[in-house]
Specification:
alpha+beta; 7-stranded mixed beta sheet; 3-stranded antiparallel beta sheet; disordered N terminus
């Protein structure tokens, strides 16, 4: 402690002591604090794909429009004694509908919505060399035949697509249509079996606000997610399948099929075949 502040040497000594005691530690502390504050934070890394968590919103049959009767989305296993890991299957979600309100009896309806006048349908075909012939039918809700064609199925087991030709009668907005696939398989040299399944589609045009939102989706993946989130199953599936074949779906194919309890088919190949041969 400095007592005699009038002596020059004493003043110099006191000043030096005060600087060493107070200013230097304070400067070091401030500099250290600045280093801690200004150091960049480590970058956060993640293995999560941008759209890997997207789930399709399965739409329920709209009230007041009347869902059609339930029909099978899966065919029979195949020939007697034949063990198939997955039966003939339509790639479409199933909704629970009440068939008899008095008894609260319910059944499953395979269906989805589409904005397209000529949509595309997808099926998993488990057979290979046993296919003898196959045909595709499209009817309206009253059973009137809209389109039919034979299908030369090759390259299966795998997933096939059936696109309705643009010159076919267009699907009407707000109307239900039933698509059926019938596959005739050889069980033996003398025995054949017709295996069939159906899937329904409800044509629904986009409202003006939804059209505006769709126009803002600049990539095919964004468009597929838009369709999925708005319950437009067939449109979403067609977009995702296109990306899947280019390895650009970013996990969307698996996610979409998982959301419809069809995940077991997601690893099956998409077969390039089956150009319809129109019968009418």
């Amino acid at each position: 402690m400095c007592i005699n502040l009038l002596h020059p040497l004493t003043i110099l000594t006191c000043a030096t002591s005060w600087i060493l005691t107070n200013l230097i530690p304070t400067t070091i502390q401030v500099a250290s604090a600045n280093i801690l504050v200004q150091s960049p934070k480590p970058k956060q890394t993640s293995n999560r794909k941008p759209n890997s968590g997207k789930k399709v919103q399965i739409a329920q049959p709209p009230p007041g429009q009347g869902a059609p009767p339930s029909t099978p989305a899966q065919g029979r296993p195949g020939c007697p004694g034949e063990m198939l890991p997955q039966p003939l299957t339509a790639l479409v979600p199933e909704s629970t509908i009440v068939t008899q309100p008095k008894n609260n009896q319910k059944s499953q309806l395979p269906w989805g919505k589409s904005t397209q006048e000529h949509p595309t349908f997808w099926f998993y075909v488990p057979y290979s060399t046993s296919i003898h012939s196959s045909r595709f039918l499209l009817k309206n809700k009253t059973g009137k035949l809209i389109y039919q064609a034979s299908l030369p199925i090759t390259g299966t087991p795998g997933i096939i697509r059936v696109a309705i030709p643009p010159d076919t009668t267009p699907l009407e907005n707000g109307k239900w249509y039933e698509a059926s696939l019938i596959v005739n398989i050889r069980c033996s040299s003398r025995t054949r079996l017709d295996n069939y399944l159906t899937a329904w589609v409800l044509r629904e045009e986009l409202s003006a606000p939804l059209k505006e939102q769709l126009n803002k989706q600049t990539t095919p993946l964004q468009q597929a997610i838009f369709y999925a989130e708005n319950g437009l199953w067939y449109d979403a599936l067609a977009k995702i399948a296109e990306l899947k074949q280019q390895n650009l779906d970013d996990g969307g194919w698996q996610s979409l099929l998982d959301s419809a309890a069809l995940g077991g088919i997601a690893d099956k190949q998409i077969v390039s075949c089956c150009t319809p041969r129109t019968k009418q």
